[in-house]
From TrEMBL:
GO cellular component, one term: mitochondrion
Family: Belongs to the PPR family. P subfamily.
Top-rank taxon, per record: Eukaryota
Signal sequence range: none
Name assigned to this protein: Pentatricopeptide repeat-containing protein
Origin organism lineage: Eukaryota, Viridiplantae, Streptophyta, Embryophyta, Tracheophyta
Length: 178
């Protein structure tokens, strides 16, 4: 196993000339990842294709709650990259899976203020669930009350009821029935 690890990370640089370039393919069976080594002016630079820079990686690497997901998305857009809705929904799902609720909520709130992103009732249900987890049930109820009537569909009502505790669920049910 140690030999395999050494074989994967070993890069051979042939000093034939200063313009020589060597490509070494990884021995992983998964394929697709390689290491490119080139000599430029006597120095070697190593670039790995395995470490692609994606928005998901940037947001999942925000470990501390004080870091802002909005800043990471803004930097991503400043670099001229697109931010499609389906990718943001997938990132929110991953952040929730890793229990990074605050960052997932920041992404949802950023999506909500964007004019070019059309949100559906399911998106608001996820947003409602995250508000309840991060800010509490009262904030979630206030968010639900501020939703337009066309978005108060069973999806968002169910999300609100799932976040309610047994004692507050009766009060929530009464609000929903009115």
């Amino acid at each position: 196993m140690l030999l395999r690890l050494v074989q994967r990370s070993y890069v051979v640089v042939c000093p034939l000339s200063t313009e020589a370039a060597t490509t070494v393919k990884s021995t992983r069976s998964g394929g697709g990842s390689g290491i490119t080594t080139s000599l430029e002016g006597g120095t070697s630079t190593v670039t790995s294709t395995r470490g692609r820079d994606t928005l998901e990686r940037r947001l999942l690497s925000l470990i501390y709650a004080k870091r802002s997901a909005v800043i990471a998305i803004s930097k991503w857009k400043e670099e001229g990259r697109s931010v499609p809705k389906y990718e943001l929904n997938r990132i929110v799902r991953e952040l929730r899976k890793h229990k990074q609720y605050k960052h997932a909520l920041e992404v949802c709130e950023w999506m909500r203020v964007q004019d070019d992103i059309q949100l559906l009732s399911g998106d608001y249900a996820v947003h409602l669930d995250l508000i309840a987890k991060v800010r509490g049930m009262n904030s979630a109820e206030n968010f639900f009350e501020d939703l337009p009537d066309k978005l108060k569909v069973p999806t968002t009502c169910t999300a609100l009821l799932h976040t309610a505790t047994p004692t507050s669920s009766i009060r929530t049910l009464l609000k929903l029935s009115l």
